[in-house]
């Protein structure tokens, strides 16, 4: 089985009798108008000009072809094996899976506020709060012990933290990233708030905070590697 085959067909994650696919995490945004109301999706679409920008990047990288969006293009580098490897790793973990993890958080917010649903479906254990478990599962990944030894979006905030002074927190599992500390704290706070009515304003405040926190790791990464690759620091 090729890496592209696993990306497009799935392998280990079952959902309702079918394999989830990482490709689906991105492609679904091109057709699901509900997904297209999410702030991160809107932000990405405005920048790239495509709801499924992640999948378009990845298919090009798997195939070794050029990626071109507006002023951005991989050009000849798109066929370089080293570049393809980095594009695939980074886009999957820190764009496609991170955005889908956030989608689960957004789904919990929508379910909590959906007055057409019965009370149990909004505030019960299988309601909005269940989406929080899914958000964290996709964010941290199944192999993460806490110290950036896994393969999910969680590792980015841990790895970049030491170079930006955001490594002064105790996540409780060996992690030190203040980003991840704030994310798990907000997640646990939401687990309480989402099990009773009347908390919409406070819930939205936490979700907005978490959206902002998820931008920190990618920004740190861009700054760090822009510096490392600059002429001045070479």
From TrEMBL:
InterPro entries: HCR1. It comes from the Eukaryota. This is Uncharacterized protein.
């Amino acid at each position: 089985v090729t890496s592209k085959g696993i990306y497009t067909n799935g392998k280990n994650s079952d959902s309702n009798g079918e394999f989830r696919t990482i490709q689906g995490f991105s492609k679904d945004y091109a057709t699901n108008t509900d997904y297209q109301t999410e702030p991160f999706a809107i932000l990405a679409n405005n920048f790239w000009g495509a709801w499924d920008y992640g999948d378009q990047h990845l298919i090009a990288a798997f195939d070794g072809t050029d990626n071109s969006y507006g002023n951005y293009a991989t050009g000849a580098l798109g066929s370089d094996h080293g570049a393809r490897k980095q594009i695939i790793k980074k886009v999957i973990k820190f764009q496609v899976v991170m955005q889908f993890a956030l989608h689960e958080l957004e789904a919990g917010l929508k379910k909590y506020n959906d007055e057409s649903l019965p009370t149990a479906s909004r505030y019960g254990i299988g309601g909005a709060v269940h989406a929080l478990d899914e958000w964290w599962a996709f964010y941290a990944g199944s192999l993460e012990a806490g110290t950036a030894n896994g393969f999910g979006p969680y590792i980015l905030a841990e790895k970049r933290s030491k170079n930006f002074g955001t490594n002064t927190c105790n996540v409780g599992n060996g992690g030190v990233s203040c980003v991840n500390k704030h994310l798990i704290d907000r997640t646990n706070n939401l687990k309480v708030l989402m099990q009773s009515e009347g908390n919409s304003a406070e819930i939205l405040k936490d979700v907005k905070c978490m959206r902002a926190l998820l931008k920190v790791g990618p920004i740190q990464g861009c700054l760090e590697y822009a510096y490392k690759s600059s002429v001045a620091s070479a």
